[in-house]
Predict the 3D structure of the following.
Amino acid sequence: MSVTVRVPAKVNVQLAVGGVRSDGFHDLANVFLAVGLYDEVTVTPAESLRITCSGPDAHQVPLDRTNLAARAAGLLAARHGIDPAVHIHIAKDIPVAGGMAGGSADGAGALLACDALWGTGSSRDELLAICAELGSDVPFSLVGGAALGTGRGEQLTELEVGGDFHWVFAVADGGLSTPAVYREFDRLAEGLDVPAPVASPGLLDALRTGDASALAGALLNDLQPAALSLRPSLADTLAAGTAAGALASLVSGSGPTTAFLTKTPDDAQQVAEALLTSGTCRTARVAGSPAGGALVV
Ligand code: ATP
């Protein structure tokens, strides 16, 4: 018997970053939107915990106990005094180290899958608590849709979304380390007064009404200057998407994936093709939003 869970990627439509806290984290106002690019996590009883991964970026995924899916299985098993003897297979379609929370998605997916496989019957709140222990972005991967994350991003308030938004994601060669991007943010902010992060009312309104043009005007990522500083070539990708007719372009989370909002699915196809021919990215993917959260399939 095995259980498969499908779990989405995310884009941060607003990522407002405050100053560094005494625990080393940053306070955030993080508006997450789940997008229709998915990993599938399958768990099957086995002699002992092991992980395999398939997909074009599989070689970049750690297959040891540092994998967030393995850590999720370990945490759930420990809570219930169970041996985490399970084979976890990740069919990876979310870009790795791309700022789209692929590892977090696998953590949330493995948690839900193991809970179903082992019959541990965890409540939503118990699952969310384990997700928060795994990482700041993991609770959102479980919930999906759209949500505002405060604290270090893990305290979630679900948000209403009044329509579909269409995206193109340009995947860059190689990843960017999230901690390195935050370190660069701190370096660039040195000596500056960093305001407390707040969610933009205009952006929340645009989500609620499903207004793509208004959302385009409100997209904001405070990590973008840091990501561009570490990877200046991303400016060419952003410019290529804008020239191809995207309503707006921004770096996704800590990058190096870049995100382009378009008016229609056809526009998204056109922008994706233009990005591919521009030679400024490795590949371009079209995806709709909002997508649902982790789901047993
Ligand atoms: P975020 O958007 O949450 O900052 P990201 O999308 O930039 O994350 P991930 O794909 O989650 O990045 O991977 C970041 C690092 O996490 C990888 O380089 C890898 O070392 C590690 N990692 C641990 N578990 C996984 C996993 N299941 N899939 C991918 N990477 C993983």
User: Anything to note?
Assistant: Residues 135 and 258 are 22 Å apart (CA to CA). The mean pLDDT is 96.
